[in-house]
Design goal:
about 425 residues, alpha/beta, Urease, subunit C, domain 1, TIM Barrel, 8-stranded mixed sheet, 17 helices, 17 strands, about 40% helix, globular
């Protein structure tokens, strides 16, 4: 595809008007202020009229539980522990592999609709989740989750053999769209012996780690009581978990000493402002993290606690709420927030060649229709994206150069069937719980 005469947010998220962007073989092959000459232009195939549009890097959802679309609207107005113990875990115990497939497929459709091309997913039934992602055309870092309450070697848990199988089958599959991570759900759902074993395996294999940390105040403080004053981040560092590239979701109650550890180990913090506030957990101290140099990215979390995959809503919250909580309108600039949702999210997944509108990068792009009233005037398009834009403004989403959403159509997904399947499966499970 050749995007013609289109405004863009370039590799630095700076606005550039009247550009031509050529996509070929899954990558951005050309960016210029005029169309490629002659036969070179023809090699790009379709010419996309860019007038009234803004081309920017697509979004990377750094923390998700995709099959939880089945729980959308199910567990409401509850704090985290009651939400998990009384509602979510009993529901999940009834979910079949096919339930996970349809829940993931519907999540992929929703994410594509809102400009998301890749997500980091922590859940169960990895075979079915991978199948859904591959069919959708999106990308995902997938990890198999298990709760490690019993202190015993990791090798004695079912997840050990499963993870090895999934790495062999899927790591790098679908031309690199699928990557397998290792997972520790959280400090309070695991034990030091098993976690240390998982850390050693992850480091040996050169893979990434995905975990929850300091999501609630009680989790954070109870960890300190159990582990001689160590916070979850300090605890995970002490047993080697952070020796592998790590995405730590939430980090709502992290302390300044944790920031130093994060910087030392290159930890990515996946902030989830909508989910954390909805569950009454608070929100991550992002301004202090950014000031210290912590890598901050953005996630939606699961649909039982958000309840949607519209990354532009989370983007808006990330850029806005800290101004109110600190009484400082200068904290978390629009560019910092958008970088968290794009390039930093890609880096958190180990996707070094993604997340920027730059020649040679993967063609992970979304196009926004900027002709609506909320976009006028275009005094600063970057600011408009963050504060005035909506997920519904996305009119095209491209993953690795392939269109996965365009003007209401999903070329790779039967959305109506996915909606129907998820609806019926949710009814069945609620009746069983």
């Amino acid at each position: 595809m050749l995007f013609a005469d289109i405004d863009i947010l370039d590799e630095n998220l700076d606005h550039r008007s009247h550009r031509w962007v050529g996509v070929k073989d899954g990558r951005i092959a050309y960016i210029g202020d005029a169309a490629p000459a002659g036969a070179e232009a023809d090699a790009y195939g379709e010419v996309y009229d860019g007038r009234g549009k803004l081309l920017m890097p697509a979004f990377y959802n750094a923390h998700a539980h995709a099959p939880m679309t089945l729980l959308r609207g199910y567990a409401e107005n509850l704090p985290l522990q009651a939400w998990l113990n009384d509602m979510v875990w009993p529901f999940e115990a009834k979910m079949t592999p096919e339930d996970n497939y349809w829940g993931t497929l519907l999540s992929c459709a929703e994410m594509a609709r809102y400009g998301v091309v890749s997500f980091s997913d922590m859940y169960y039934h990895t075979d079915e989740r991978v199948r859904a992602v591959v069919e959708s055309g999106l990308k995902a870092n997938v990890c198999e989750s298990e709760l490690y309450f019993e202190p015993k070697p990791f090798s004695q848990y079912n997840a050990c053999a499963l993870c090895e199988e999934y790495v062999d089958k899927y790591h790098g599959a679908a031309d690199g769209r699928i990557l397998i991570d290792y997972n520790i759900h959280a400090e309070y759902t695991s034990n030091p012996q098993t976690c240390a074993d998982i850390a050693a395996v992850t480091k040996e294999k050169g893979l990434r780690m995905h975990l929850h940390a300091s999501e609630t105040r009680s989790e954070h403080e109870e960890c300190k009581q159990r582990h001689d004053g160590m916070t979850p981040i300090q605890y995970f560092e002490s047993i080697g978990v952070l020796d592998s590239p790590t995405t730590a979701a939430h980090c709502t109650w992290c302390e300044p000493a944790d920031f130093d550890i994060m910087v030392e180990h290159g930890v990515f913090v996946a902030a989830n402002p909508a989910s954390n506030m909805k569950l009454g957990s608070g929100y991550a101290p992002v301004p202090a993290m950014l000031e210290r140099g912590v890598n901050v990215c953005l996630g939606t979390d699961g649909m039982a606690s958000n309840n949607n995959h519209d990354m532009m809503q989370d983007l808006y919250l990330l850029a806005l709420l800290y101004k109110g909580s600190t009484n400082d309108p200068s904290v978390v600039t629009p560019k910092q927030a958008l970088a968290a949702a794009t390039r930093m999210g890609a880096l958190s997944q180990g996707r070094e060649d993604c997340g920027q509108v730059k020649e040679g990068m993967k063609a992970d792009l979304c196009v926004l229709d900027v002709t609506g009233p909320s976009w006028a005037p275009m005094t600063n398009p970057l600011v408009n994206v963050v504060y005035a834009g909506h997920g519904s403004d996305v009119c095209l989403t491209m993953s690795d150069g392939a269109v996965v959403y365009r003007d209401g159509a999903f070329p790779t997904i039967d959305v109506e069937r996915a909606k129907a399947e998820v609806g019926e499966r949710t009814k069945r499970i609620i009746a069983e719980v």
